[in-house]
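The authors assume throughout that readers already know how a fold can be written as discrete tokens. For illustration, here is how one protein appears when written out as sequence plus structure tokens:
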Amino acid sequence: MASNIRKNTIWNAAGNIVYLGAQWVVTVMVTRLFGFADAGVLSLAMSISASFQTVALFGIRNFQVSDIENKYSDSCYVSFRCITCAASLIMCALFACVNGYSADAVVTIMLFMIFRLAENFSDVLHGIFQKHDMLYKAGQSLMMKGCALLAGFGAGYLAFRNLNGSMASMTLAAVLVTVLFDILQSRKISEYGFTSRISVCLSLARETIPLCVYLFLNSVIATAPKYILEKMCDEATLGAYSSIFAPALLIQAAATYIYMPFLTRFAELYQGRDIKGFRSLAVKVTAVIAAMGAAVLLAAAFAGKWGLTILFGEDIVPYSGLLTLIIVGTFCTAVNAFFQMLAVVIREFRGLVISCAAGVVICCAASYGAIGVWQADGASIGLIAGTVSGTLIILVVLIKRLGRIGGKKE
């Protein structure tokens, strides 16, 4: 078990670092090659697609991996993901067309949405890998996809010399990895198909719809500050803010590498009613995330401005002061995501939705007020307010739920 966890953790971390690093390099290249205005358009596309991908994901990855009794088959999960991906694409297209964006911006949004869907469909296949204790294959997939999207972006730039040409080529590369690696490799592990029993998919949908709601609300907390910033300021400010935000997301990603390999272990501890072991593991993981966040903040204090200048050039210097609060915001998001994962493991869906709903209200209210006073820094303040409030609520819910179960066992 320890050997598998180590192998899965290393490969998953390496794959995610390459994949997320590649996306970050793309944002840097867009800023460098096309300027802050196009970087703002890309950020808008990323934010909008992130909201609609919640429909595609439906919040079931943690549910799928912690379904250790196999209540639903792999075929059911894959079929349901096909349905949700199609629905999210249609919804995104309608939103992009009626919201008054330019034709070029609509194309960028749709291209990035298709890129997201390649990732989202791979996600359910990665869940199959993880359930079979082969999460390392997901890491290999992400590593290949990161390399492919960089190659695709570069080829598109050389061929078209514009943002949408580069996005189209990058998206095609991502889709090819999903088809040629994820589907082929997962079929070797599980002989899933597309179930004709729509009633089973509907049952899965009914059981997991609170997870879709929570994931959507969670995405609003992440994207609303940027959306409000773009409305209250301008695309250039949003582009600069998003450019700085991109490398800070590595904190959130790194936290995922830490706790994701333990998801099935948490499910096993909870199923066995080993509440003491569950709590102990949760505290250890939280401590590691906290230590990582502190180390990143310290590094940013000493070398943040220098690093941003190296990456984005002198034009980013006036915005470099935004980095500290951005890092705090992404750290708060990482901690919140971990506790939300624990809530899914113990099937505490009601508390999950309530915590996210409260977070959305507080995030939007704080963002409007803070951006009016501190501009771009206000977006980070809104994010921090929303995630901290949501974390406190779900933490109280978790403590009460585990306390009741622990008391019954005793």
About this structure: The longest helix spans residues 275-312.
